[in-house]
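Example (one chain per record):
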Amino acid sequence: MSLSEGALDTLFLGARTRYGWDETPVSEADLRALYDLVKMGPTSANCSPARFLFVTSDEARARLAALALDSNAAKIRQAPVTAIIGYDLKFYDRLPELFPHTDARRWFSGDAKLAEATAFRNSSLQGGYLIMAARALGWDCGPMSGFDAAAVDAEFWAGTDVRTNFICSIGRGTDAGLYPRAPRLAFEEAARIL
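Predicted structure:
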């Protein structure tokens, strides 16, 4: 069954990356509902390597903003939530629980390069699910790079096997700083059918 035009507009056609935020709070219940959708998105071998830190307090936002480019720091300070989407390099330790019908843990436990590539790739998928789920729940998003990933790792993931993929502000966006929609590549420029 296809989604309605309104749903497609909410998720893709009318949705925009936001740079300004109003003061509407995003509650813990909202974040839990968001995660409950995100976790249902597919990952290879159900590996689910993404780890999420929802930065909400003024103190935590200031710590994160200090590690970002100036233009991104302002967005982080203003947004009610900025999610740090990380990836767990030891995600495979959970595979006996998450993918119990075979010993998938052994695929990764002796191959750090494969484990990192798998964790990064699938956490990127899960970060995309986060954006789509947030939009589906009526929130706006502002995904961004433009931060010192090593410093974010040291500040927020110290003592863990988690590394930062990207960050994404979540809340009710305003039109502040909104550019006209940028062009997209045509099918013929970006895709082929073989």
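Caption: The chain has one domain: 12-170.
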